[in-house]
Amino acid sequence: MAISWMTRTRLPAIVMAAAVVATACSSAATTAPTAAPASAAAAPASAAAPASAAAPASAAAPASAAPGASSAASINAPNFKVALVVSGTLGDKGFFDSANAGVMQAAKDFGIQTKVLQASPTDPAQWLQNLESVSNGDYNLVITGSTQQHDNLTQVAKEHPNQHYIQFDDQVALPNVLSIEYKQNDGSYLAGVLAGIVATDKADFSLSSGGGKVGLVGGMNIPVINDFVDGYKQGAESVGISASNILVSYIGNFTDANKAYNLTTAMYDQGADIVFAVAGGAGLGVLKASAEQNKYSIGVDSDQNGLYPGHVLASMVKEVGNSLYDQIKAAILGTAPWGQLLHYGLPNKGVGLIIDTKDVPQSVVDKINAAQQDVASGKVVVKSEFSQ
Q1: Domain tally, the chain
Q2: Comparing C-alpha atoms, which of 333, 301, 279 is closest to residue 106?
Q3: What pLDDT shows up at residue 59?
Q4: How many CB atoms lie within 10 A of CB 228?
Q5: β-strands 165-168, 141-145: how paired?
Q6: 88 in any annotated domain
Q7: CA-CA distance, 197 to 194, in Å (whole number)?
Q8: Which of 292, 225, 220 shows the shortest CA–CA distance to 255?
Q9: Which domain, by its residues, includes 269?
C-alpha cells in the first residue's frame, strides 16, 4: 500500500504500459483513471487571443479542485486545441508521462482537442521544429517544458506574440508565456529525511548496512537538478547524516540509463544504502540497480514505487500533470495568468513524497509526516537554487 502527502484524488502522476500499471497499482493507494487518447487536430481552431501585458513575475498557484470534479463538469470546449511538445519521447514513467497525463485528463474532462509531438531526446533541432510547427495560430495553447526548451521557446514565442504558451519546470519571461516551476527542493527534503533514516536503521530496513551513507544520481549539473540536491542534503542532514556521507553524481543527460546504473552501482559499492534518482528517463537505471544490487532507491517525478517492489521505497513526485490540468482549465475559462510565473509546492500539492508503506513502517511515516508539516508551515525553510 502506498501513501502520498498529496490528495490522491488528484490526477495520477503517471500513465504506464498496461503491465507496469498492473504492478504499480498493487501497491498504490488508488487506481489511476484511464487517460483519454490524444486526438489529432481535425480542423483549424480560431487563433489564440492576443497576449496580455506582463503580470507580476511570480505568484503562488492556488490549489484547485481534483480533475474530473464537479467544477469541471460544465466545461465543454471541443474547439479548444492544445499541443504538447516534449523534448524527447513518452514512456519515461516520470516527467513527460506526467505532463501527458495532465493533458489527456483535460481532454477527457473538457472535450478539448489535443496533439502530442515527440522527438529524439538528442536532437534539439527537432524540438525547435516541432515547436514552430504548432505556433501558427491553429492551437489555442502550446505546452512545452524544462530548461532544455528554454531557448527554443524564447525564440518562437517572440516570433509569435499572439500565440499562448505554457512552459513547465522553467521560466520564460514573456507576456504570452505562462511559466510553472515546482518546489522540488521541498519535496526532496522529505526524500532526504527518508534516506537518512533508512541508512541508519537496520532494524526496520533489512537491506540497510546502517552505515549512514546515502546517494543521489542527477541528470545534469544544472540549477533545477541542484535544487533537488539542496533539499535532499538538508533533509538527510536533519536526521544525522554527515555531509561527507551524501554522495552525488551526474550523468550528463537524461537519457543514459546504463550510465545511471553504473553510477548507482558505484555508490552502493562505496557503502550507500539508498540512492535517489533525479534523472528523468535515465533514472530508471538507478531503480534497476537498486533491485539488482539488493539495495534501496527513491524514484522521481511520478509514482515509480511499483517498478521494483521492496527496493523503491518512495517517489518524490512533481505533479506536472496536475499543474497543466489546472492551467489548461484556466486558459479555457480565460483566467490564465499570462506572463506570470506560478509556483507549485507542498501546500498546493505540486510536489510530495509517495511512500510504499508495505516496506516503510508507520513510525518512519510519522517522522516524514512531521517533516512535511514543518516545511509546509514554514517552520523549516529548505535551501533552494532559486529565489522563491
Answers
A1: 2
A2: 333
A3: 54
A4: 28
A5: parallel
A6: yes
A7: 5
A8: 220
A9: 187-318+358-377
**What CATH number should be reported for the domain holding residue 40?**
3.40.50.2300
* Phi, psi at 348, each rounded to 5°: -105, 25
Alpha-carbon distance of 210 to 245, in angstroms, equals: 12
My answer on whether 311 and 342 are in the same domain is: no
Above 50 in pLDDT, residue 53? no
Inter-residue contact 211 to 273 (CB < 8 Å): yes
C-alpha 340/C-alpha 347 separation (Å) is 19
In what side-by-side order are the strands of the sheet with 177-182?
58-60, 341-344, 177-182, 165-168, 141-145, 81-85, 113-117
Fill in the DSSP letter of residue 170.
B
The percent of residues above 90 in pLDDT, for the chain, comes to: 72
> What per-residue confidence (pLDDT) applies to 22?
31
Q: Are residues 26 and 143 in the same domain?
A: yes
How far apart (Å, rounded) are the C-alpha atoms in residues 276 and 256?
A: 16
339 in any annotated domain: yes
Residues 98, 37: one domain? yes
Chain centroid to Cα 185, Å, comes to 12
Q: Do 263 and 168 belong to one domain? A: no
Res. 101: pLDDT tops 90: yes
pLDDT digits (tens, 9 = 90+) for 248-292: 999 999 999 999 999 999 999 999 999 999 998 899 999 999 999
